[in-house]
Amino acid sequence: MLTQAQRDRISIVLVSPRNPLNIGAVARAMANFGFVDLAVVSAYEPHWREARSAVGAPELLAKARETSTLAEAVRDCTLVLGTGTLTHRKPEQPVVCLDEIAQLVTRELDQPSSRISIIFGPEKHGLTREDLSWCHHLVEIPTDAGQPSMNLGQAAAVCLYEIAIRSGDATENPYTPSPAAASRATSGNLDVLTGLIQQVMLASNYSPGNMRAANEHDLRLMLRRLNLNPADQRRALGLFRRILRQLEDRRNS
Amino acid sequence: MLTQAQRDRISIVLVSPRNPLNIGAVARAMANFGFVDLAVVSAYEPHWREARSAVGAPELLAKARETSTLAEAVRDCTLVLGTGTLTHRKPEQPVVCLDEIAQLVTRELDQPSSRISIIFGPEKHGLTREDLSWCHHLVEIPTDAGQPSMNLGQAAAVCLYEIAIRSGDATENPYTPSPAAASRATSGNLDVLTGLIQQVMLASNYSPGNMRAANEHDLRLMLRRLNLNPADQRRALGLFRRILRQLEDRRNS
After folding, report:
1. Which ipTM score applies to this complex?
2. Rounded CA gap, B14 and B149, in Å?
3. In what order do the strands lie in the sheet with A95-97?
4. Range of the domain at B188
5. pLDDT by residue (tens digit) across A3-32?
6. Residues of chain A that touch chain B, judged by Cβ-Cβ distance less than 8 Å
7. Does residue B173 form part of some domain?
8. Which of A157, A194, B169, B230 is geometrically suited to a Cys-Cys bond with B154, CB 3.0 to 4.6 A?
């Protein structure tokens, strides 16, 4: 069972939700299981306003953060978890089944300055491949093959129940990773590194300019898979800054 | 993880649901987690019709059973589980927390002819004390004290997820009860016994007539707590029938 202090370090992020009833239902599930931080990415304004002003809307809706990009919403998080089913999807990151997520969450929260985001996609199609490239893992909700797709409010309730009730206790795994291996760079720091490496790729003529988006996507996935800790990330930043300067100096000379 | 054959032996029962969207949401959660048998008790007709005819309503809504009483809806079940929170409630039956329900469900399904009902109350106030008197256990959903009450569709999603995913595997408990102790009379059989004992109570002037409802309530609870198996129930029926005949003979003579 998570303590309140642990729940406060977990954010719920909704990407482009459409139905105000669903937004309200997610907020209610958050209140039911003691979560307080909600972020909404590229909200459809009329519906978002309607959800916020609904009678009996929990206070956390009024306090919700609004961002225009997913990168911004998860910037300060060290573990980003996308949710969905595996139908019509070949995930590019490790998949973890919802009923086995407790250990992952618990271990992350054992790090003093860690923060977790749980991301839910829009009602119609769920998270896109692009959205998922910001996620360390895809959390699969084990639904029936006949009707795999869950309602947004119900998916949130199931995920938050599982995380609130089964995470937070001492992990059963006797292996304790070293602090350096366990702590993790924030999503925002990884984005800075991604941007810098992109510049180096361009400056070094690593690949044609029209490959830029595909490279950026792969780079995002790779940096999350590498599990960089803050020191790794600083070292990599220092190295690539130096490389970039040298490449630019050479071009200018 | 429950097999499909096991899921088919679990019924979902909604008592007086009001909001057609919630009825639809319960049906969707059932489809998501592979449950098929839905019963609706004393449905409010216009809303029930609306829920059934909604676009994209799962087939199980069209096939749902309608009953006028809870007793009828759970008649063939050997384990009846009411759901709710403990706020404003002093339950008269054993409480089991949702995250510990797997063993109870698994053990019941190990009995060849067992059937389970999971009961959800109306949106406003949940199951009444009267409704709960048909339940062997109250299943508590472990919600936050600040916002304990869950939306009906979300409560169903959380309960069905937990039961579908965590029940059905070999119980960890090494103790195997004898078949006689483990198998259980159906709810309908217990109701027949309750009715008969009521008649005996009246015929024997056990208590004033105005205590009838209270006695019946306590009797229902007690018979479920006693965990009668089908043979116990038949023996008790035989005995009380004989007692009743004797009492009536004496009165008529």
Report:
1. 0.85
2. 16
3. A65-67, A37-41, A10-15, A116-120, A79-84, A137-140, A95-97
4. 180-252
5. 999 999 999 999 999 999 999 999 999 999
6. 1, 21, 25, 28-29, 31-34, 58, 98-99, 141-144, 146-151, 153-155, 157-158, 161-162, 164-166
7. no
8. A157
